[in-house]
Design a protein that fits this description.
Elements lengths: L2 H16 L15 H9 L3 E2 L4 E6 L10 E4 H5 L3 E11 L7 E14 L2 E15 L2 E9 L5 E9 L6 E9 L14 E2 L14 E5 L4 E10 L6 E12 L1
Antiparallel strand pairs: 1-13, 2-13, 3-12, 4-5, 4-7, 5-6, 8-9, 8-11, 9-10, 12-13
Length: 236
């Protein structure tokens, strides 16, 4: 073998050596230690099957629909989280309410110790009544995790006016909590100006993430009357 060939072989072997597979000489390296294997295992995230829910109810029951939902975990797989909500304004009422809602689920993968969005996205309609416009999205950043949903209700706590996510960011598996200072995504929905209605916080427990969003709405007036989030544990 000439020197150029040796250099190419050594170069390839050096790359493999970084993975702990082959030495530069081309001879298989010793097997990875138990400690290294355990460390690699601990660096992998996964979403658990246990579920936890939290909901808000206006108490209004007239003309109430069945549950309408987007369930990322159940529909698309255990590696999908809820990462987006698109709110549409009512068609012309002075009440300013969300009359149509779409949701987005995003697939995640383990990468360099983090659990990040991998480019797989699925959107679906949650509900629709008499709306106008194209709607606006509020979305979770690719390196963050949905830890809850915050919404503004009207002054009388009868219906939902705006929605946004609470998000957290942590690259260490199993160390997402406590959720003491979550960030907020931009609010979407026809608030009509500064927040004047009560805010409601549907928050996951520490180290849980949002995998589903559900609602019931008034089928005659088109207003969201009852909302619920489903959270599941994100651990190593």
């Amino acid at each position: 073998m000439n020197s150029a060939s040796k250099q190419r072989v050594c170069g390839v072997s050096a790359v493999l050596a970084l993975a702990g597979l082959v030495g530069c000489s081309g001879v298989a390296a010793e097997s990875v230690s138990d400690e290294a294997t355990a460390s690699t295992s601990q660096a992998l995230w996964s979403v658990g099957s246990d579920s936890w829910t939290k909901e808000w109810n206006s108490g209004k029951t007239d003309n109430l629909s069945d549950w309408k939902e987007i369930s990322c975990y159940s529909t698309y797989g255990s590696d999908f989280l809820l990462t987006g909500l698109q709110a549409f304004q009512d068609s012309g009422s002075a009440d300013n309410y969300i009359a149509r809602l779409r949701g987005k689920c995003s697939g995640h993968t383990n990468l360099n110790g983090a659990y990040v969005q991998d480019g797989r996205h699925e959107t679906e309609l949650v509900f629709s009544s008499d709306y106008k416009g194209d709607g606006d999205w509020t979305e979770v950043a690719s390196e963050d995790y949905p830890a809850g949903v915050v919404f503004e209700a009207d002054l009388w706590n009868d219906y939902v006016k705006t929605l946004r996510f609470e998000t957290v960011h942590q690259n260490n598996p199993g160390l997402l909590g406590p959720y003491e200072n979550p960030s907020l995504t931009p609010a979407v929905g026809p608030s009509g100006g500064p927040i004047i209605g009560p805010l409601h916080y549907l928050e996951c427990p520490d180290e849980y993430v949002v995998t589903a969003f559900s609602l019931k709405y008034d089928t005659k007036k088109g207003k969201i009357r009852h909302v619920k989030i489903t959270c599941r544990p994100l651990t190593d």
